[in-house]
Design a protein that fits this description.
The chain is built from seven helices and no strands. It is mostly helical. The longest helix has 25 residues. The relative contact order is 0.11. The structure holds zinc ion. Zinc ion binds next to helix 4 and helix 5.
Length: about 150
Amino acid sequence: MEHQRVEKLNTILEELKNTVDEKAAKKLGLDKCKRIIEKLYSFSSDCEECDRRFNEIEKQIIQLFEKRNVLEENDFKQQKQIISSIISHLQKQHKLIPSGYYMSLFISIGSSLGVVFGFLIFDNIALGLPIGIGIGAAIGASFDEDAKKKGLTL
Ligand SMILES: [Zn+2]
């Protein structure tokens, strides 16, 4: 597959973003689309499904672009379905994680531990909680950074 197809899709996505309003752009997940397309492209030579999905989303985006001025509720729904099924493939088969995944994971661990240790050590939950969240966020951020560097983030 040639990289031009990715570039062409990116151009269409940009134009689409400029045409529809902010709310519609968000509903169509245009920014997410860009990242997904890059990933599908990078896996497409080894993964038949990514190749197939790439063709699917390419067709979908061109279609959306053609009817960009008359988008209906059904178009948003369809787009959402396509994106979420692609994301689930990328996460399951290619072990990709959503960006900020570790951040929210460690904040939730940190806050539960913060409550427990706040209670045990300071006899004060309110004191332990922010410490737990702070430590969790710091650990989460470094994991996210690492995953991003390795290209594992969606
Ligand atoms: Zn794949």
